[in-house]
Amino acid sequence: MSAAIPPGPPSAATRWRIGWPRRVFSQVLLMQLAIAAGVTVLATGLFLRPLGSQLDDQAMRRALSIAQTTASEPRLVTALQHTRPSREGPVQAAAERIRRATGAEYIVIMDRRGVRWSHTSPDEIGKHVSTSPEQALAGHEVMQIDNGTLGRSARGKVPLRDRDGRIVGAVSVGIAYETVRGRLLGALPGMLAYAGGALAVGALAAYLVSRRLQRRTHDLAFSDISALLAEREAMLHGIREGVVALDAHGRIRLMNDEAQRLLDLRAEDTGQPLEAVLPPGRTTDVLAGRVTGADLLTVSGGRVLVANRMPTDDGGAVATLRDRTELERLGRELDGTRGLIDALRAQDHEHANRMHTLLGLLELELHEEAVEFITEAVGVHRATAEQVTERVHDPLLAALLVGKATVATERGVSLRIAEGTLLPDRLVDPPGLVTIVGNLIDNALDAAVGSAEPRVEVELCADDRTVLLRVSDTGPGIPADRRDLVFTEGWSTKKPPAHGQRGIGLALVRRLAERQGGSARVADRDGGGAEFTVVLPEALTQEPAGKPAGAPLTATGEPR
């Protein structure tokens, strides 16, 4: 048994976590409470400041009003002019009477020299005032907060005039500043009550917001959320499947690098509506949710995709895309290989029958008949190869047509090259045209099998740089109301093969044609059946000056 290791002293990080909670709920609640308390204190302070100034102004105006009332007493002017300043003088008696009646702290009446004739303290009578009376003696009314012999007070000073309007003195009235402060302190309990109520409402709102945030974040810490976001980004861009997230309004919320590649989108398309960055079609319908189902096949830019869409709780959706182009190509090659194996098996039986026939002719010593039989059998295949290579000069396309002719023969269908066929060896995208021709011939062969005169005709002609392709068959044809559906991904009248789904070939034909600026359509064939027409502008390179359109090729693909 290993000895237990005693716990060491807590680290600085541990002490910090103890002092500050890690959960988002607790952190947000504390921050919001601190903000609410700070706002409440700030609002209370901002309210008290103008309240104090307002109370000061009211006190100064009250002092000025008392001073104006006192100065309007005519007996004061007479007493000031004909008596001397004393404790029992008429000026002191009148000033004290008005002071007691108004509740002022003091009323000082002075002459033009600034000598007091009245004062709350009789000992100050006959002395000069402690503050300058120049403005009042100059005829101005003064309001101020000042310090005097009786302390800090709100003052009002007015000139004292005789009947002729001459200034003979001044009146100074003071309101004790403690009275102003008392009124301010008296208003504090009510204000604090309002502030406390506001703080309580703010705390409750902070708690409710924090609880909602707790539910939305699943009570995770900020570090956990940051780690989850980093992991999501790494996983999103690391997987080899395309991921597209849409919001409730159909706008692209996010997409990974693979989705941008598969849908030919850019990073700047994030935030744009889906219909604004993707062309109309099945791909857009599947991503938008107008077509529902699992593992839906769609074609985008020549790629075969498998799409799945999952709605989210907020009304949006997340769609995943898998590139099935290579798988679809391998599946078609498998179908072709199986068809070729069946054709080889049939040829093996045919070859055995011919060899038995040849052996019998030789045993019967019918040598001329044997030579004629061999020449006819070999000539059929040689004639087919020469007919194709004389009119189609591109080696890939010529080889495809020769191989399809063999498969058609084994399936009992006659594959013909139209008289007007002539295609030079100047294709811009030979593999693309091979895909188009191969898909159209495969569909035509499937349709022609079982008809009265099974036949498929292929016409390839060029006009300057434009290639025109027509493939017709003697099958049942396509009703007019379904001619647009045959080019839709997933639509087919045939049973799906073992490797997957049908309904991709014709959709791929139209998409490849449109990618080259061309078109694909279907119509009725004269005499019954269907006729597919594909127009590919700019499908040929510019013909060099002085060079013929192209020399016919031999069966081996070499120029004659």
Automatic annotation (TrEMBL):
Catalytic activity: ATP + protein L-histidine = ADP + protein N-phospho-L-histidine
Ranges annotated as spanning the membrane: 24-48, 191-209
Biological process per Gene Ontology, one example term: regulation of DNA-templated transcription
UniProt subcellular location: Cell membrane
Enzyme Commission designation: 2.7.13.3
Annotated region described as Disordered, given as residue ranges: 540-560
Keywords noted in UniProt: ATP-binding, Cell membrane, Kinase, Membrane, Nucleotide-binding, Phosphoprotein, Transferase, Transmembrane, Transmembrane helix, Two-component regulatory system
Membrane-related topology note: Multi-pass membrane protein
Protein name as it appears in the record: histidine kinase
Domain (Histidine kinase): residue spans on this chain: 429-540
GO molecular function (one): phosphorelay sensor kinase activity
The organism of origin for this protein: Streptomyces botrytidirepellens
UniProt main location, coarse: membrane
Single GO cellular component term: plasma membrane
Matching InterPro entries: HATPase_C_sf, HATPase_dom, His_kinase_dom, PAS, PAS-like_dom_sf, PAS_fold, sCache_3, Sensor-like_sf
